[in-house]
Amino acid sequence: MEGVKKALHPAGSRPVMCGNAVLGYVTDRRITRRNWALPAQRLADLEKLIRGRHGSFVDDDNASSYLLDLARAVVNSHRASARQKGREANDQELVAAVVAACRKWLPVLTFDEVEEEALDAIDHPAFEKADVVAKRLGVTFAERQSLGLKTIGCRDLNKRQRKAAVKAAKVASRKAQRRAAGVKSREEYVANSVTALARSWGVSRQTIYDWRKADDPRGLYMCDPNMGEGILASDLSSNQATAQRPFKAASAPKAVSQSAGSLSGPRPVAPRLNKKKPTLSSAGVDRLKNNIEQVLLYRERSALGKALEEFRRSA
Predict the structure, then answer these.
(1) Confidence class of residue 82 from pLDDT cuts 50, 70 and 90?
(2) Residue 99 confidence (pLDDT)
(3) pLDDT at 11 exceeding the cut of 80
(4) Nearest residue to 72 via CA among 94, 88, 104
């Protein structure tokens, strides 16, 4: 159709449709080929480790300890990047990449040492486990957590122990955030709950609610039989010294008379109903007698049969 302009479609994106209408375009990582790669992450972790320990580069004798892992990480990363682009990286390109990385991070090493290690990494591009690399480089758990390493483990904790430590740290962090937000801990909540208040007085929770409706101070204070006075529920968990209250807590709330208008007395017990015993009809009585007679007759026959059998055996 003439006069109709075609909408521009951004490269590496897909349209978001609502029926036949195009609402917009979203970049798809699978189309743009910017997926996360494990070899690239190992190379990034090694760079973080060198930067965290030595700064911009390694300028001492420790440079040779990073050469093996850095060469393997560079070779594996460049091979994975080339395969994502649909081609294979040649040896010359890989050696040049290793030499460039060592010039940046390990400048004290000679070209012959770097080239020899690069050729060995090309022939044996082993991607070792995180704990193996960590033991070779001497990475600790504190260093791993501070630098945010993902593909390098630590020498003092195994994988299961690291997961448990990270989980415990997350739980402690969330607990600190909840305390900072004003959320009570479980112990403090239970100590100030209505259930704890009811247990201190020896009554039910409904009684506590009734006291509060009647503006009875016992609905707000704990009963302390040792001190003989009420303690405010919020002061019980903090163990603060309590001042004299305008009332004395009774040792047994049931002893308070109901005539004084208190709700602490015993609850009224509903009278038991005299249930009638079940009776049988005349037909039911006849069936019961018939069943009893049959059982007795069966027992007599079985006893008589046993006696005859013993007589035959003795004869």
Answers:
(1) confident
(2) 92
(3) no
(4) 94
* DSSP notation for 78-93: HHHHHHHTTS---HHH
- Looking at the domain assignment, is residue 121 inside a domain? yes
Residue 238: CB atoms within 10 A of its CB come to 9
Same domain, 231 and 151: no
Q: How far apart are CA 147 and CA 48, in angstroms?
A: 7
CB 69 within 8 A of CB 136: yes
* Tokens standing for residue 118: 């690069």
Rounded to an integer, the average pLDDT of 130-148 is: 92
| Domain shared by 67 and 107, yes or no | yes
Residue 150 domain boundaries: 38-157
User: Are residues 65 and 132 both part of a single domain?
Assistant: yes
Give the Cα separation of 53 and 137 in Å (integer). 11
42 part of a folded domain: yes
CB count in 10 Å sphere of residue 115: 15
User: Helix or strand or coil: residue 15?
Assistant: strand
What pLDDT does 8 receive? 62
The Cα–Cα gap between 66 and 50 comes to 8
User: pLDDT exceeding 70 applies to what percent of the chain?
Assistant: 75
Closest by CA to 209, choosing from 223, 224, 220, 225, is: 220
Q: What is the pLDDT of residue 239?
A: 44
Q: Are residues 123 and 201 in the same domain?
A: no
Q: Which amino acid is at 41?
A: Q
In angstroms, rounded to a whole number, what is the distance separating the alpha carbons of residues 311 and 67? 105
On whether the pTM is more than 0.85, the answer is no
Look at 13-27, 199-213, 252-266 and tell me which has the smallest mean pLDDT.
Answer: 252-266
Identity of the amino acid at 26: V
* Same domain? 139 vs 54: yes
Same-domain status, 153 and 230: no
Domain count, the chain: 2
**Contact assessment for residue 249 and residue 229, using Cβ atoms and an 8 Å cutoff:** yes
Average pLDDT for residues 265-275, to the nearest whole number? Answer: 53
Burial of 211 (0-12, 13-18, 19+ CB in 10 A): buried
